[in-house]
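Table S2 (text version). Query chain:
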Amino acid sequence: MKKLLLSLLLMPGYAIIFATTYTITNSAFTFSPNSITINVGDDINFTLGAMHNAVEVSQTTWNANETTPLAGGFGTGFGGGMVTTAQLQMGTHYYVCVPHALSGMKGVIIVQTTTDIFQNQLQPDLTVYPNPANNFVTLKSSNTLIGSRYFIADQAGRSVYKNKLTDEVSSVDISKLKPGVYLIQLEGLRGRSVKVIKK
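Corresponding structure-token output:
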């Protein structure tokens, strides 16, 4: 058995990928963080107060602040629990706290492929606030990113806004966007940064 394991590790084309366990907690009636990007193979440990749980729902249910569980989706009991890699396939996972979804206690887990690991190590610095927002979001970046292109995409991946950074701090008018979850993607010299915003 030891020889077999050693042989597999030394074979060309195999890579050792270390999984990470991320923790999501609650701060009053919000998840913290309420949006997280992880890699395939990573786990999430929900450490919540006794009156909070986390249940995966469809995007439609999430947008409507409803609580119908997604068939085959993950769920934790009150107080939290572990959500393993087997429950977190590649893509976007929407979840809510069942008793407090109407209060906005919702979150998003984006699971990306492990081929994106190198790209993430090169992410340019980008901060987006406030989040959620109604009319404007502010993009804050380093001066090395001035002139970089960015775009906002809806949940179907359609670009709804494109522009270039003109300053270290830029204001973006999102008042005409429908309520929902959007991705802001910035293409810089050091790679790509993707942030989730809610309206």
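Notes on Table S2: The chain has three helices and 15 strands. The longest strand covers residues 181-188.
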